[in-house]
Each structure stands twice: as structure tokens, then as C-alpha cells.
Amino acid sequence: MRNLVLTCLILGILFACKEHKTDPAVEATSQSQYWSFENRDDQYTGGIKMIPIETELGTFRVWTKRMGNNPTKKVLLLHGGPGMTHELYECVDGYFPQEEIEYIYYDQLGSYYSDKPDDLSLWTTERFVEEVEQVRQALGLNKDNFYLLGQSWGGMLAMEYALKYQENLKGLVISNMMSSIPEYNDYAQNVLGPQMDPKVYVEIKAMEEAGDFENPKYGELLFEHYYTKHVLRKPLEQWPEAIMRCLNHANNQVYVHMQGYSEFGITGDATLKDWDIRERLKELSVPTLVIGARYDTMDPEHMEWMSKEVQNGRYLFCPNGSHLSQYDDQKIYFNGVISFIEDVDSGAF
After folding, report:
1. Where is the active site (predicted)?
2. Does residue 299 carry a catalytic annotation?
3. Per the residue annotation, which of 322, 323, 325, 329 is the catalytic one?
4. Which of the residues 86, 111, 114, 152 is marked catalytic?
5. What is the pLDDT of the chain when averaged over all its residues?
6. 137: which of 13, 36, 78, 171 is 20 to 30 A away, CA to CA?
7. 152 labelled catalytic
8. Considering 107, 296, 299, 328, which one is annotated as catalytic?
9. Would you call 323 a catalytic residue per the annotation?
10. pLDDT per residue over 20-29, tens digit each?
11. pTM (2 decimals)?
């Protein structure tokens, strides 16, 4: 009798598994709907929209490209820099579609595929926040579907946007960005810098103190001894083509004005040098994922602390990653981001 009961239980489990097995036809239909442009106003352009942005200097246009369809999971990607491009995140193509997460590539004003006005007064955090809000409205994103994912400078912009407009958000992802530029500078100069070859570190510091940022040697030393260890942990010749394309498309006017001349902290009179919102993190109540990485240019312990300061946070640690951990610790990165989106969407977060 005991063996009969056991056999029945096993058969029951097997039949249950068969009943819940995904029907290939249903799965194919789902994917075809995900990729369908039918009845979309961007069908003619294959998902691309040039969105008008109102500023005090007039109206300019920014480039966006929508990928997929999902009524409850739409992720707007904020690239780093400032002045870089959406190309930093083209690897998303390898992960979001199979989860049927809709995502929107977006080049901020001044970046390669958008308008590039030549006026330094436009390059302020406050104006970029209003730009993101205008993009949100134009794309029909709202608190029932809108996830904002920002990496590096994009993470800074995402935090600033959330502090003003979090009622529009369903979820926030702060990727590889600290909440304080002074603390970022301290980490770069006093923790990561001294880990370099002492002779190289002295040479880099001497050029910075002399303001010799245009010296080709400055960039060469940083790429060889800093970027390949803390920005993307691969030899430069193995960096993904999308990253190299992004670097070639960078708007140096925006980058130097706001960030300075390198990723080795904020240099010169860059406008972001005093940015610090540590005391305001507790104002954020929207579900928030903070991503840090062991070898990042940003302090991973600070980013873990940030996840505890917000009211409803989670921390994702990439043990093999650096600043672009979406590339050098890719599976950990995207598994964590996808789990966060799914948990928020299902109400489990």
C-alpha cells in the first residue's frame, strides 16, 4: 500500500509538470506580440522617436528607440558620461527580450544621436532632470510601468529625477554610482590611486597638478593602469565594439564641463565636483535597486549603504565587476536587475 501511494504521488507530480509545461505555440505568440510594431505610432521609424525638449534656449530634439512591448515593465536607460551615448547599454539586447521587458534607449541632449547645442548653460543637473521628465511624458511612461535605470552619471541623474518626480516611478535602479562626489573623489585618490604602480601614480598626479590633461600620456597611463582595472576589466583590445563606438561618439564639451578630464575622480573646475545628496536618500520611497562592484571606480561599500538609506532598497553586488559591470560581470548584473523588475512587478518586493 505504501508503495502504491508513493507511485501515485510521483505520477501526480509528473502529470502536473506536464500540464504546466509552456506551450511552444503560446510562447511564440507571446514573443511575436512583444516584438510587434502593429498599432504603434513609431512603426514607421522602427521604434525611434526624436522627442522635442523645451529649454530656456529653445526647443531641441533627443533620440530614443523603444525595444519590445510590455504594458507593465518599461525601462528607460540613462547612460553615463555625461556626454556618452546609449551604446554603453547595447548589451541589454542579450537579456531583456527573452524576459519580455520593454526598454528604451535614449541619448541625452548633447549626446551623439541627439541635438548637440553649443552652450554650456544647458549642461546642468537640474535641466537634465526636466529633460527626463519631458521624455517620460512623450513616451507615456507612468507609475504603473516606468522603471528608470541609470549607470554612473546616469545613476546620478536617476537619483535627482527620483528626488523630484518619484511619484511617476514604479522602480529605480542606481547602477555603479555613489551619492557623493566628494566621497567618490576621496575613494579614487586615496584608495584606488595608491594601488597603482607608485611611479605611474606619481606621474599621473604630477600631470593633474600641472593641469596637463591634454597630454596624450595622461590618457594612455589611465587607460593602461586604471581603466582596464576599474572601468572595464578586460585588455583594451578586448573591449566590446559598442563601448569603443560610444567613446568615439562622446561629446567632450559636456563631459569635461561636468565631469572633468577622466574617470579618475572629478578634475579641475567640473561643475559636478560638489554634488552630494547623502542626506536626501531617506526621502526615496520608490522600490530601489543599488548596484555596486568589487573593482568599481565607485566604493561598493558606500553603494551598499545607499541601499539601506532609501526606504525600500535592495543591494546587488557584482564580485567580478568594475564600473561597467554590465559587461565584466554580466550574468550577475542582469540576473539581479531582472529579478528586481520581476519582484516589483509581481508585488513581491
Report:
1. 152, 296, 323
2. no
3. 323
4. 152
5. 91
6. 36
7. yes
8. 296
9. yes
10. 455 555 555 5
11. 0.90
